[in-house]
Amino acid sequence: ILGDFGSCDYAIGNRFQMAYAHYRQEKQLEGKAYGKSLVINWPLWKDGGMGVGEEENSKLYLKSSGQRFLEAEEGVGIFDQLLTQNKTQHLIVVGERSRVQRFLRLSSQEQPVVAASTASMSGRPGRRAEMKGFTLEQCIEWDLKEQASQLLKIPRDKLEQDENLADFGFDSISLAQFAGILTNHYSIEFTPSLFFGYSTLEKLKKYFLIKHQETMKEYYQESAAEDVSEKVPAIVMGSKRQAAKKSRFARQKTVLTLQEQEPIAIIGMSGRFPEARTI
C-alpha cells in the first residue's frame, strides 16, 4: 500500500489478497459466494517478528513517516471493530496524525521545495579546495554531511556518522528531497528507499564506495592543477653587456621573489675582539 522498502514479496502477496477479496465480495453480492471477505492492511506490529530488516532500518522508516509500532492489544481491538464493518478493505496506520496525513499525501498543505545542490557532474572534478589531500572516503563523507547540513539547517559537526538519519530530523519529505539532491550532485538516480537500507551516513558512505566506486573515483579525481608543485622562479641569463645594464633594482626584485617563496633571514655582524687576531 505505502511502497515499503525491502518488502516486495510481501507486497505482491498482499496485492493478490486484496484483489481476491474484492473479487470474492463481488461474487457474494451476486449470490455466488457466501460469508464475508475482509482485507486489513496492517502497519508494523511491535511484536510478532514482522519488520523491515535491521532495527535501525525500521526506526528510520517509522520516524520519517510519523508512524510507530502497533501494540498487540491495539491490534486485537482494531480487528474486533473491523469485523463489524461493511467495507471490504481497511488501511491501519498509527502515529502522529498530521505527519501521517502528509506522508500519505492526504494533507492539502503544500510542501516546501528545497533546491538541489548546484554542484553536479558537469562541474567535475567534485574535489573542492577544502578536500585537498582527502582520501576518496573522506571526500564522500564531507559531501554527504555538507548536503545534509544544508538541507536540515544543522551544523555539519553535529552530524554523527553512526546516528540514524531520523535522529537528525529527516522525515519522508526531506528524505525524498535528499535523494533528489544526491541524484543531481552525482548524476546517479537515487530514490528515498535507499536510506531505509542505509540508514546512517556511515552506511551511505560505504554504499557509494562499493556500489559506485568508479563513478566516485572519477568525480573526486585530483585536478591537474593541484598536482603541479610550487613554481621556482626562473633566472634568465643574458649577455654580460645586458647584465651590466641592469640596475640594482632588478637584482633587488629577484631577491624579493625568492623571499616570497621561502622566508630567509640574513643577519650580518662586524667587529673586532681584544687580543683576537682573526675575530
Automatic annotation (TrEMBL):
Gene Ontology MF: a single term: fatty acid synthase activity
Keyword Phosphoprotein on entry: yes
GO-annotated cellular components: cytoplasm; plasma membrane
Keywords for this protein: Phosphopantetheine, Phosphoprotein
Chain ranges of the Carrier domain: 135-212
PANTHER family, per the entry: FATTY ACID SYNTHASE, SI:DKEY-61P9.11
Listed name of the protein: Phosphopantetheine-binding protein
